[in-house]
Design goal:
126 residues, alpha+beta, Beta-Lactamase, GAF domain-containing protein
């Protein structure tokens, strides 16, 4: 995946906290987006991860405005949970090309990585 980030959010705000950008996606740490115009907001509301191998092959996502706006085909995002199970934000990655990411191995790895990340943010939680 060409772009990966950690985002923090509330019901009103979305902010990129850390980014890794190999594709000139154009989002930098500290940048804010309209929370309502993000897939991360859907994750915040549901508490469930989203894995999309190819937007054009995913009926739910092919006409969604967010992939069209940002030009990505592959997307993975998992919620970052606080100890009280509220959503702190998301850890996500996108790429303009399709990638096979919706596999049991990737699902397990990304969820474990998200949990590990939260131990750095909240070290007293372990």
């Amino acid at each position: 995946m060409g772009f990966a980030a950690v985002a923090g959010m509330t019901e009103e705000r979305w902010m990129a906290l850390q980014v890794y950008d190999r594709i000139e996606f154009g989002l930098n740490a500290g940048d804010e987006l309209d929370i309502a115009a993000t897939i991360c907001n859907e994750i915040r509301e549901s508490g469930r991860p989203i894995y999309i191998d190819s937007v054009r092959d995913a009926p739910k996502w092919r006409d969604h405005p967010v992939p069209a706006t940002y030009g990505f085909q592959s997307y993975v995002s998992v919620p970052l949970f606080r100890m009280d199970r509220s959503v702190y934000g998301t850890m996500f990655a996108v790429d303009p090309k399709p990638h096979v990411i919706d596999t049991p191995e990737v699902r397990k790895s990304i969820v474990l990585l998200a949990a590990r990340l939260m131990t750095f943010l909240y070290p007293d939680a372990i």
